[in-house]
Amino acid sequence: MSTWRRILMAVGWSGLGLIVIAATLSEFLARNALGALHAGAPLSPPSEAFPFGTDLLGRDLFSETLYGLSTTVAQAGEAAVLAVLAGGLLGFVTAHLPRPSAASLRWAVGAFAAIPPLLLAILVIAATTRGMVGLAAGLAAAPLAFVRAFDRARRGNFSAHSAYARATGISASALLNRDLAYEFRDTFLPTVARALAAVAIILSTMSFLGFGAIPPHRDLGLMIAAAQRSYFQAWWTAAFPALALMAFILLARLAAGLDEGERP
């Protein structure tokens, strides 16, 4: 791994840590309670009293952005864990199954991976409830994580050092334990970071389209959607939630070393 990539990853994880701290302390950092109406005049521009301005209902956008960021981070964390476990870990273990079983499962999951994750998430929401948005985003990102982990593990299984290890009599379970240790050491953190970026995009888009967070609880995607009516008269109503979302996704991508785009 190059020095520049290590620096990017360090910057990304440091930034994500600061975002998690801000999201965790949102109730202490916010100037107003969640959803507090008429904190100021409607659609007031950014000022000393309201650094991010106010929205159409006079809510303090600085406070609301902190609360929205907190919701987005919590949902993205839940979804990323699910994507890594149900996708990455399962894909790695599947690659070590007998070849016919492994190939069949790879084909089946690959069919789901060909469907855009946003559509998969909406289908999961249709089968459950809007309160399961984190589950929906995690399951939607899992097929891509499965395919990525499976293909990487499969290449390792057919490498020269694996063939030599099998030839010397090392058991399949011992090889699995060894490969899993290397997988955890070398790729776990980038996989988590990629999953965070992927599910944050899915979650915010779902909320923007009306399939995500349920008011009065709002995430950043829902805040951007709610600002559509006032955006051209009051740019700050959408700009600051969008910047917060962009920062979260960019830092997650940096933490992954800018690897493989949105694929978890």
- Quote the CATH topology: MetI-like fold
Global mean pLDDT? 86
Which range best describes the helical content: under 10%, 10-25%, 25-40%, 40-55%, 55-70% or over 70%? Answer: 55-70%
Radius of gyration using CA atoms only: 21 Å
Would you identify the regions where 5 or more consecutive residues have pLDDT less than 50?
A: none
Structural class: mainly alpha
| The first-level CATH class name | Mainly Alpha
What count of domains describes the coordinates?
Answer: 1
**Count of helical regions:** 10
- What portion of residues belong to β-strands? under 5%
Gross morphology is elongated
Give the end-to-end Cα distance, rounded to a whole number of Å.
Answer: 19 Å
Number of distinct beta strands: 0
Q: At CATH's second level, what is the architecture?
A: Orthogonal Bundle
Largest sheet: none
Q: Helix-strand pattern, N to C?
A: HHHHHHHHHH
What distinguishing features does this structure have?
single chain; 264 residues; mainly alpha; MetI-like fold
Question: Can you characterise this structure?
Answer:
Helix 8 (172-209) packs parallel to helix 9 (220-226). The model has no long low-confidence stretch (mean pLDDT 86). The two termini are 19 Å apart. It contains ten helices and no strands. The chain has helices at residues 3-24, 26-29, 61-94, 99-113, 117-127, 133-157, 160-167, 172-209, 220-226, 236-255. Helix content is 70%, strand content 0%. It has a single domain (3-255), classed as MetI-like fold. By secondary structure, it is mainly alpha-helical.
